[in-house]
Design a protein that fits this description.
- The structure is a single chain.
- By secondary structure, the protein is mainly alpha-helical.
- It has one domain: Farnesyl Diphosphate Synthase, CATH 1.10.600.
- Helices cover 70% and strands 1% of the residues.
- It is built from 16 helices and 2 strands.
- The protein has a two-stranded antiparallel sheet.
- α3 packs across α8.
- It starts with a helix and ends with a helix.
Length: 381
């Protein structure tokens, strides 16, 4: 089974867990002038619209340490090239995928992600998310229609409240798990916030940071949170702390690929698939590895035009194309593709070590995890 097919097979279970939590909250909490039900309905729709990568990875990690196969996994063992004492599996369901604990853990991750995205869009001053107005822009539009004073400020204030609700709803779900998992979440989310603070500071200064500085931010803001945390949470839910060093090594390398892919797609991807304008990072003046490696190689005339484009909210499609041409001309895309392949090889090596060292792994889930490594390099959205 491919990672894509595995994801499709469990999205419904994660969606139901998210919906159940927010529907319960809708009925549990007081309605202030009729606003509260609408807030929870909006957050439910928003949370269910994402790719659910983090929730899916948490389920996959839990499956990896469960001898029974999840619904939708192959009924016959699939051979994989990585060596290791893999256990054969029967096509029975596992407890985490009967709509209970495993999906609740996944739902917590997705609610945290929803809150972080809402707040991130405010900090980045983004107007679109998944092809629709960002949360603060949606609230701003509603506030403007209602005749509110300073609708832009009110929109941001309401979106901050919405993001906070996502965080606290997620923590309610996490309260059903052990202290070890809660501590893991707390520590990793603090790291996300510290890395985000560093990233915001990068944007407030004119100089380009060193590549190593940005990759450090990527490691803590994206890689550990997006890949390491879900994999570790799923393992801890199954009582397999012995696998954490291997999963962290896998996750860190795949997470760095994930962010570098995001940077690439933000310049060269398909706008319809991304759900946001191509070149938005240029418009916002984000100091990605593409920009950091490109700038020192520019001629004086190229720098002059680049400086007029970078961070310009009114940049045109011709401006975006000009920067893309520079990236090709100076080989920045090829250089970073090589970096991604190096991270991929490190992830594959770590996966081989996991499979050869940790006993009792589910063969079907191991095959899906291996396919996820390949998927990370090839994804288009």
């Amino acid at each position: 089974m491919s990672f894509h097919d595995y994801s499709k097979s469990i999205r419904e279970g994660i969606s139901k867990a998210i919906g159940a939590e927010l529907d319960e909250a809708r009925n549990l909490y007081p309605s202030f002038s009729g606003d509260s039900p609408g807030m929870f309905d909006l957050l439910k729709k928003y949370s269910l619209a994402g790719k659910m990568l983090r929730g899916i990875l948490a389920c996959l990690s839990a499956d990896l340490f469960t001898k029974k196969a999840a619904p939708g996994l192959l009924s016959k063992p699939r051979s994989i090239s990585s060596p290791g004492p893999l256990q054969d599996s029967s096509p029975e369901q596992i407890p985490g995928h009967n709509g209970t604990e495993g999906f609740k853990l996944a739902a917590a991750l997705e609610l945290l992600q929803a809150g972080l995205l809402i707040h991130d869009d405010i900090m980045d001053e983004d107007s679109l998310r998944r092809g629709l107005p960002t949360m603060h822009k949606r609230f701003e539009q509603e506030s403007s229609i209602s005749g509110a004073h300073n609708p832009a400020h009110l929109g941001e204030a309401l979106a901050l409240c919405a993001g906070d609700i996502c965080y606290f709803s997620a923590w309610k779900l996490l309260s059903g798990f052990g202290v070890e998992i809660q501590r893991l979440f707390s520590q990793e989310l603090v790291k996300v916030c510290l890395a985000q603070a560093r990233d915001v500071r990068f944007g407030a200064h004119g100089r380009f940071p060193e590549l190593a500085e940005v990759l450090e931010v990527y490691a803590y803001k994206t890689a550990r949170y997006t890949i390491c945390l879900p994999l570790a949470a799923g393992a801890l839910a199954e009582g397999r702390a012995d696998a954490l060093p291997f999963l962290e090594d896998i996750g860190l390398n795949l997470g760095l690929i994930f962010q570098l892919r995001d940077d690439y797609l933000g310049l060269f991807g398909d706008e319809a698939r991304l759900g946001k304008p191509i070149g938005s990072d240029l418009r916002e003046g984000k100091k990605t590895p593409y920009m950091i490696l490109l700038y020192p190689l520019l001629s004086d005339s190229e720098k002059q035009r680049f400086d007029s484009i970078f961070g310009n909210e009114s940049l045109s499609s011709a401006d975006v194309e000009y920067v893309r041409t520079l990236i090709h001309r100076h080989g920045i895309d090829k250089s970073l593709e090589k970096t991604e392949r190096e991270y991929s090889q490190k992830a594959k090596t770590a996966l081989s070590r996991l499979l050869s060292t940790i006993p009792g792994l589910n063969q079907h889930a191991a095959a899906v995890l291996k396919d996820f490594v390949e998927y990370s390099l090839a994804r288009t959205n």
